[in-house]
Request: fold
Amino acid sequence: MKILLIVDDYLPHSTKVASKMMHDLALELQEQGHQIMVLSSNPELESTYSLKKVEGVNVLFFKSGKIKNVPKFRRAINETLLPYIAWKATKKYFEENTHEAIIYYSPTIFWGFLIGKLKRMWKAKSYLILRDIFPQWTVDSGLMIKNSPIYLYFKFFEQLNYRFADRIGVMSSANLDYLKSVRRNCDKFEVLHNWTSIKKAHSTNSIFRKQLGLGNKIIFFYGGNIGHAQNILSLISLAKRMNHIPNHHFLFVGNGDEVQLLLKQNLSNLTYLPPVDQETYFEMLQEADIGLFSLNPNHKTHNFPGKLLGYMQYSKPILGIVNKGNDLKDLINQHNAGFIFNYGEEEKFFEAAKCLANSTEQRKEFGLNSLKLLESQFSTAKAIDQILNHFN
Reply:
Protein backbone atom coordinates (compact mmCIF):
# COMPACT_ATOMS: atom_id res chain seq x y z
CA MET A 1 0.00 0.00 0.00
CA LYS A 2 1.22 3.54 -0.78
CA ILE A 3 0.82 5.61 2.37
CA LEU A 4 1.44 9.31 3.01
CA LEU A 5 2.37 10.35 6.57
CA ILE A 6 1.90 14.03 7.47
CA VAL A 7 3.44 15.73 10.51
CA ASP A 8 4.45 19.36 11.08
CA ASP A 9 7.98 18.55 12.30
CA TYR A 10 10.31 15.71 11.33
CA LEU A 11 13.80 14.33 11.67
CA PRO A 12 16.67 15.04 11.41
CA HIS A 13 16.21 18.70 12.40
CA SER A 14 13.38 18.08 14.89
CA THR A 15 13.76 17.29 18.59
CA LYS A 16 10.02 16.68 19.14
CA VAL A 17 8.55 13.38 20.29
CA ALA A 18 6.03 13.56 17.44
CA SER A 19 8.82 13.36 14.86
CA LYS A 20 10.31 10.31 16.57
CA MET A 21 6.93 8.55 16.75
CA MET A 22 6.14 9.22 13.10
CA HIS A 23 9.61 8.15 12.02
CA ASP A 24 9.22 4.88 13.94
CA LEU A 25 5.86 4.44 12.21
CA ALA A 26 7.41 5.05 8.78
CA LEU A 27 10.27 2.61 9.35
CA GLU A 28 7.97 -0.15 10.62
CA LEU A 29 5.51 0.36 7.74
CA GLN A 30 8.38 0.07 5.25
CA GLU A 31 9.59 -3.04 7.02
CA GLN A 32 6.13 -4.53 6.46
CA GLY A 33 6.40 -3.86 2.72
CA HIS A 34 4.44 -0.61 2.32
CA GLN A 35 5.62 2.34 0.20
CA ILE A 36 5.95 5.35 2.48
CA MET A 37 6.25 9.08 1.89
CA VAL A 38 6.42 11.62 4.72
CA LEU A 39 5.28 15.22 4.20
CA SER A 40 6.59 17.79 6.69
CA SER A 41 7.50 21.46 7.02
CA ASN A 42 11.00 22.90 7.27
CA PRO A 43 11.40 26.67 7.77
CA GLU A 44 15.11 26.45 6.92
CA LEU A 45 14.64 25.26 3.33
CA GLU A 46 16.04 27.50 0.61
CA SER A 47 13.76 26.04 -2.07
CA THR A 48 9.97 25.69 -2.11
CA TYR A 49 10.22 21.98 -1.41
CA SER A 50 12.88 19.29 -1.22
CA LEU A 51 12.75 15.50 -1.44
CA LYS A 52 15.21 13.77 0.90
CA LYS A 53 15.85 10.39 2.48
CA VAL A 54 15.99 10.09 6.27
CA GLU A 55 17.30 6.66 7.30
CA GLY A 56 15.81 5.18 4.14
CA VAL A 57 12.45 6.99 4.43
CA ASN A 58 11.39 9.34 1.62
CA VAL A 59 10.54 12.74 3.11
CA LEU A 60 9.07 15.65 1.15
CA PHE A 61 9.86 18.86 3.04
CA PHE A 62 8.13 22.13 2.12
CA LYS A 63 9.30 25.58 3.18
CA SER A 64 7.09 27.20 5.84
CA GLY A 65 7.18 29.91 8.45
CA LYS A 66 8.53 29.01 11.88
CA ILE A 67 6.04 27.29 14.17
CA LYS A 68 8.30 26.25 17.05
CA ASN A 69 9.67 28.52 19.77
CA VAL A 70 8.22 31.74 18.32
CA PRO A 71 5.68 34.24 19.77
CA LYS A 72 2.13 32.87 19.98
CA PHE A 73 0.60 35.23 17.40
CA ARG A 74 3.32 34.49 14.85
CA ARG A 75 2.98 30.77 15.48
CA ALA A 76 -0.81 30.92 15.00
CA ILE A 77 -0.43 32.68 11.64
CA ASN A 78 2.30 30.33 10.41
CA GLU A 79 0.40 27.23 11.50
CA THR A 80 -2.77 28.47 9.82
CA LEU A 81 -0.85 28.84 6.57
CA LEU A 82 0.79 25.39 6.76
CA PRO A 83 -1.77 23.41 4.71
CA TYR A 84 -2.13 26.11 2.05
CA ILE A 85 1.63 26.44 1.60
CA ALA A 86 1.99 22.65 1.52
CA TRP A 87 -0.73 22.30 -1.12
CA LYS A 88 0.72 25.03 -3.33
CA ALA A 89 4.25 23.62 -3.07
CA THR A 90 3.45 19.94 -3.59
CA LYS A 91 0.24 19.81 -5.64
CA LYS A 92 1.99 18.96 -8.91
CA TYR A 93 4.14 16.31 -7.23
CA PHE A 94 1.14 14.60 -5.62
CA GLU A 95 -0.88 14.75 -8.84
CA GLU A 96 1.83 12.54 -10.33
CA ASN A 97 2.35 10.40 -7.20
CA THR A 98 -0.93 9.06 -5.84
CA HIS A 99 -1.35 7.36 -2.46
CA GLU A 100 -4.00 5.00 -1.16
CA ALA A 101 -4.01 6.13 2.47
CA ILE A 102 -3.15 9.19 4.58
CA ILE A 103 -2.03 9.11 8.21
CA TYR A 104 -1.68 12.55 9.78
CA TYR A 105 -0.65 13.82 13.19
CA SER A 106 -2.18 16.54 15.35
CA PRO A 107 -1.00 18.93 16.69
CA THR A 108 -1.14 20.96 14.49
CA ILE A 109 -4.94 21.30 14.13
CA PHE A 110 -4.69 23.00 10.74
CA TRP A 111 -4.25 20.05 8.36
CA GLY A 112 -7.94 19.83 7.42
CA PHE A 113 -7.75 21.85 4.18
CA LEU A 114 -4.82 19.81 2.87
CA ILE A 115 -6.34 16.45 3.86
CA GLY A 116 -9.57 17.37 2.09
CA LYS A 117 -7.71 18.23 -1.12
CA LEU A 118 -5.63 15.04 -1.11
CA LYS A 119 -8.59 12.78 -0.30
CA ARG A 120 -10.63 14.19 -3.16
CA MET A 121 -7.71 13.91 -5.59
CA TRP A 122 -6.80 10.31 -4.67
CA LYS A 123 -10.12 8.95 -3.36
CA ALA A 124 -8.06 7.89 -0.34
CA LYS A 125 -8.97 7.21 3.28
CA SER A 126 -7.37 9.03 6.21
CA TYR A 127 -6.47 8.34 9.84
CA LEU A 128 -5.91 11.21 12.28
CA ILE A 129 -3.52 10.58 15.18
CA LEU A 130 -4.91 13.08 17.70
CA ARG A 131 -2.51 13.76 20.58
CA ASP A 132 -3.75 17.17 21.75
CA ILE A 133 -7.36 18.30 22.23
CA PHE A 134 -6.83 21.94 21.34
CA PRO A 135 -8.12 24.59 21.98
CA GLN A 136 -9.90 22.97 24.96
CA TRP A 137 -6.76 22.56 27.10
CA THR A 138 -5.99 26.30 26.79
CA VAL A 139 -9.45 27.08 28.17
CA ASP A 140 -8.88 24.64 31.04
CA SER A 141 -5.54 26.32 31.78
CA GLY A 142 -6.99 29.83 31.76
CA LEU A 143 -5.01 30.86 28.68
CA MET A 144 -8.07 31.38 26.49
CA ILE A 145 -11.70 32.35 27.07
CA LYS A 146 -14.29 29.93 25.77
CA ASN A 147 -16.36 31.32 22.87
CA SER A 148 -14.03 34.28 22.47
CA PRO A 149 -13.18 35.20 18.84
CA ILE A 150 -9.76 33.54 19.01
CA TYR A 151 -11.27 30.39 20.56
CA LEU A 152 -13.91 30.18 17.83
CA TYR A 153 -11.19 30.68 15.21
CA PHE A 154 -9.22 27.70 16.49
CA LYS A 155 -12.40 25.69 17.03
CA PHE A 156 -13.30 26.07 13.36
CA PHE A 157 -10.00 24.55 12.24
CA GLU A 158 -10.22 21.82 14.88
CA GLN A 159 -13.60 20.71 13.50
CA LEU A 160 -12.29 20.91 9.92
CA ASN A 161 -9.40 18.69 10.96
CA TYR A 162 -11.82 16.11 12.40
CA ARG A 163 -14.19 16.34 9.43
CA PHE A 164 -11.72 14.98 6.89
CA ALA A 165 -10.57 12.05 9.05
CA ASP A 166 -12.22 8.69 8.43
CA ARG A 167 -10.92 7.50 11.81
CA ILE A 168 -9.45 9.40 14.76
CA GLY A 169 -7.18 7.86 17.40
CA VAL A 170 -6.95 9.59 20.79
CA MET A 171 -4.26 8.64 23.27
CA SER A 172 -6.28 7.39 26.24
CA SER A 173 -9.63 6.02 27.39
CA ALA A 174 -10.13 9.10 29.55
CA ASN A 175 -9.80 11.32 26.48
CA LEU A 176 -12.36 9.22 24.63
CA ASP A 177 -14.76 9.48 27.58
CA TYR A 178 -14.24 13.25 27.66
CA LEU A 179 -14.99 13.61 23.95
CA LYS A 180 -18.13 11.51 24.33
CA SER A 181 -19.28 13.90 27.07
CA VAL A 182 -18.91 17.02 24.90
CA ARG A 183 -19.62 15.78 21.35
CA ARG A 184 -22.85 14.50 19.82
CA ASN A 185 -21.20 11.91 17.60
CA CYS A 186 -17.98 10.10 18.45
CA ASP A 187 -18.38 7.10 16.15
CA LYS A 188 -15.10 7.79 14.34
CA PHE A 189 -13.06 8.16 17.55
CA GLU A 190 -11.12 5.33 19.22
CA VAL A 191 -8.19 4.87 21.59
CA LEU A 192 -4.79 4.62 19.90
CA HIS A 193 -1.96 4.50 22.42
CA ASN A 194 1.36 6.22 21.84
CA TRP A 195 4.14 3.97 20.54
CA THR A 196 7.87 3.64 20.10
CA SER A 197 10.23 1.18 18.48
CA ILE A 198 12.19 -0.56 21.20
CA LYS A 199 15.92 -0.47 20.57
CA LYS A 200 18.85 -1.54 22.67
CA ALA A 201 20.44 1.24 24.69
CA HIS A 202 23.84 2.52 23.60
CA SER A 203 26.81 2.01 25.87
CA THR A 204 27.60 5.01 28.02
CA ASN A 205 30.68 6.53 29.55
CA SER A 206 28.80 8.99 31.77
CA ILE A 207 29.83 11.85 29.48
CA PHE A 208 27.10 14.23 30.57
CA ARG A 209 27.50 13.47 34.25
CA LYS A 210 31.14 14.48 33.91
CA GLN A 211 30.35 17.60 31.87
CA LEU A 212 27.73 18.77 34.37
CA GLY A 213 29.75 17.76 37.42
CA LEU A 214 27.04 15.42 38.69
CA GLY A 215 29.26 12.47 39.56
CA ASN A 216 27.20 9.71 41.18
CA LYS A 217 24.21 11.88 42.05
CA ILE A 218 20.70 10.55 41.39
CA ILE A 219 19.42 12.46 38.32
CA PHE A 220 15.74 13.40 38.05
CA PHE A 221 15.43 13.93 34.28
CA TYR A 222 12.79 16.00 32.48
CA GLY A 223 12.97 16.14 28.68
CA GLY A 224 10.64 17.85 26.22
CA ASN A 225 8.29 20.80 26.03
CA ILE A 226 8.39 23.21 28.97
CA GLY A 227 5.13 25.10 28.65
CA HIS A 228 1.81 25.96 30.29
CA ALA A 229 0.38 22.50 29.66
CA GLN A 230 3.24 20.90 31.62
CA ASN A 231 2.74 22.68 34.98
CA ILE A 232 6.50 23.06 35.49
CA LEU A 233 5.91 24.90 38.77
CA SER A 234 5.07 21.59 40.45
CA LEU A 235 8.47 20.19 39.49
CA ILE A 236 10.25 23.39 40.56
CA SER A 237 8.50 23.16 43.92
CA LEU A 238 9.69 19.59 44.31
CA ALA A 239 13.27 20.60 43.50
CA LYS A 240 13.04 23.39 46.12
CA ARG A 241 11.83 20.98 48.80
CA MET A 242 14.65 18.55 48.00
CA ASN A 243 17.39 21.17 47.75
CA HIS A 244 18.66 20.40 51.26
CA ILE A 245 18.87 16.65 50.52
CA PRO A 246 22.31 15.57 49.22
CA ASN A 247 23.26 13.34 46.28
CA HIS A 248 20.54 14.17 43.77
CA HIS A 249 20.00 16.66 40.91
CA PHE A 250 17.15 17.85 38.65
CA LEU A 251 18.02 18.14 34.95
CA PHE A 252 15.58 19.84 32.55
CA VAL A 253 16.20 19.63 28.79
CA GLY A 254 13.88 21.31 26.29
CA ASN A 255 12.15 24.52 25.31
CA GLY A 256 8.82 26.28 25.70
CA ASP A 257 6.92 29.20 27.17
CA GLU A 258 7.88 28.43 30.77
CA VAL A 259 11.65 28.15 30.39
CA GLN A 260 12.04 31.56 32.06
CA LEU A 261 10.57 30.08 35.26
CA LEU A 262 13.46 27.62 35.36
CA LEU A 263 16.05 30.26 34.57
CA LYS A 264 14.82 32.42 37.47
CA GLN A 265 15.51 29.67 40.00
CA ASN A 266 18.64 29.84 42.09
CA LEU A 267 18.80 26.20 43.14
CA SER A 268 22.02 24.25 43.46
CA ASN A 269 20.19 21.02 42.60
CA LEU A 270 18.66 22.20 39.31
CA THR A 271 20.14 22.57 35.81
CA TYR A 272 18.42 23.69 32.62
CA LEU A 273 19.74 22.86 29.14
CA PRO A 274 18.29 23.93 25.76
CA PRO A 275 16.95 21.32 23.28
CA VAL A 276 19.37 18.79 21.80
CA ASP A 277 19.09 16.41 18.85
CA GLN A 278 17.41 13.02 19.29
CA GLU A 279 20.62 11.02 19.60
CA THR A 280 22.07 13.35 22.25
CA TYR A 281 18.75 13.39 24.10
CA PHE A 282 18.68 9.61 24.48
CA GLU A 283 22.33 9.51 25.51
CA MET A 284 21.44 11.98 28.28
CA LEU A 285 18.40 9.97 29.24
CA GLN A 286 20.41 6.79 29.53
CA GLU A 287 22.64 8.42 32.14
CA ALA A 288 19.64 9.60 34.19
CA ASP A 289 18.01 7.66 37.02
CA ILE A 290 14.36 8.79 37.17
CA GLY A 291 12.00 10.07 34.44
CA LEU A 292 10.08 13.16 35.56
CA PHE A 293 6.91 14.77 34.20
CA SER A 294 3.91 16.86 35.20
CA LEU A 295 0.63 18.04 33.65
CA ASN A 296 -1.46 21.14 34.25
CA PRO A 297 -4.00 20.41 37.02
CA ASN A 298 -6.79 22.27 35.20
CA HIS A 299 -6.83 19.98 32.18
CA LYS A 300 -10.13 18.25 31.52
CA THR A 301 -8.48 16.26 28.73
CA HIS A 302 -5.97 13.56 29.59
CA ASN A 303 -2.60 13.60 27.88
CA PHE A 304 -0.06 10.81 27.67
CA PRO A 305 3.20 12.77 27.31
CA GLY A 306 5.38 11.26 24.60
CA LYS A 307 8.45 11.67 26.80
CA LEU A 308 7.20 8.73 28.89
CA LEU A 309 7.92 6.37 26.00
CA GLY A 310 11.59 7.34 26.16
CA TYR A 311 11.64 6.85 29.93
CA MET A 312 10.15 3.38 29.50
CA GLN A 313 12.45 2.48 26.61
CA TYR A 314 15.47 3.19 28.79
CA SER A 315 14.04 1.41 31.84
CA LYS A 316 13.56 4.50 34.00
CA PRO A 317 11.10 4.61 36.89
CA ILE A 318 8.52 7.32 36.27
CA LEU A 319 7.64 10.07 38.74
CA GLY A 320 4.85 12.46 37.90
CA ILE A 321 1.93 14.60 39.00
CA VAL A 322 -1.24 14.87 36.87
CA ASN A 323 -4.71 16.36 36.62
CA LYS A 324 -7.38 14.51 38.56
CA GLY A 325 -8.97 11.61 36.67
CA ASN A 326 -6.05 11.12 34.31
CA ASP A 327 -5.83 7.38 33.61
CA LEU A 328 -2.04 7.61 33.47
CA LYS A 329 -2.04 7.43 37.26
CA ASP A 330 -3.61 3.98 37.42
CA LEU A 331 -1.63 2.70 34.45
CA ILE A 332 1.79 3.51 35.90
CA ASN A 333 0.97 2.78 39.54
CA GLN A 334 -0.77 -0.56 38.92
CA HIS A 335 2.19 -1.82 36.88
CA ASN A 336 4.68 -0.67 39.53
CA ALA A 337 6.48 1.37 36.87
CA GLY A 338 6.75 4.45 39.07
CA PHE A 339 4.74 6.82 41.21
CA ILE A 340 2.01 9.09 39.80
CA PHE A 341 -0.03 11.48 41.95
CA ASN A 342 -2.90 13.90 41.49
CA TYR A 343 -2.32 17.60 41.81
CA GLY A 344 -2.91 18.36 45.49
CA GLU A 345 -0.92 15.32 46.65
CA GLU A 346 2.37 17.22 46.79
CA GLU A 347 3.38 15.70 50.11
CA LYS A 348 3.08 12.16 48.69
CA PHE A 349 4.91 13.36 45.57
CA PHE A 350 7.77 14.62 47.73
CA GLU A 351 7.97 11.42 49.78
CA ALA A 352 7.98 9.27 46.63
CA ALA A 353 10.81 11.36 45.17
CA LYS A 354 12.87 10.81 48.32
CA CYS A 355 12.06 7.10 48.25
CA LEU A 356 13.25 6.70 44.67
CA ALA A 357 16.35 8.79 45.30
CA ASN A 358 17.32 6.63 48.28
CA SER A 359 16.58 3.14 46.93
CA THR A 360 18.69 1.63 44.16
CA GLU A 361 16.65 -1.58 44.29
CA GLN A 362 13.33 0.20 43.86
CA ARG A 363 14.63 2.26 40.95
CA LYS A 364 15.83 -0.93 39.26
CA GLU A 365 12.59 -2.82 39.91
CA PHE A 366 10.32 0.01 38.74
CA GLY A 367 12.58 0.64 35.72
CA LEU A 368 12.29 -2.97 34.56
CA ASN A 369 8.52 -2.82 35.03
CA SER A 370 8.48 0.38 33.00
CA LEU A 371 10.13 -1.38 30.06
CA LYS A 372 7.76 -4.36 30.35
CA LEU A 373 4.78 -1.98 30.22
CA LEU A 374 6.16 -0.41 27.05
CA GLU A 375 6.67 -3.79 25.40
CA SER A 376 3.16 -4.98 26.25
CA GLN A 377 1.11 -1.90 25.34
CA PHE A 378 3.07 0.70 23.38
CA SER A 379 4.86 -1.03 20.50
CA THR A 380 4.94 0.48 17.00
CA ALA A 381 3.78 -2.78 15.44
CA LYS A 382 0.66 -2.82 17.61
CA ALA A 383 -0.22 0.77 16.62
CA ILE A 384 0.25 -0.05 12.92
CA ASP A 385 -2.02 -3.10 13.11
CA GLN A 386 -4.75 -0.94 14.58
CA ILE A 387 -4.37 1.89 12.04
CA LEU A 388 -4.14 -0.35 8.96
CA ASN A 389 -7.23 -2.25 10.07
CA HIS A 390 -9.26 0.79 9.01
CA PHE A 391 -7.71 0.90 5.52
CA ASN A 392 -8.19 -2.78 4.67
The chain has a mean pLDDT of 90. The longest helix spans residues 72-96. The chain has 15 helices and 14 strands.
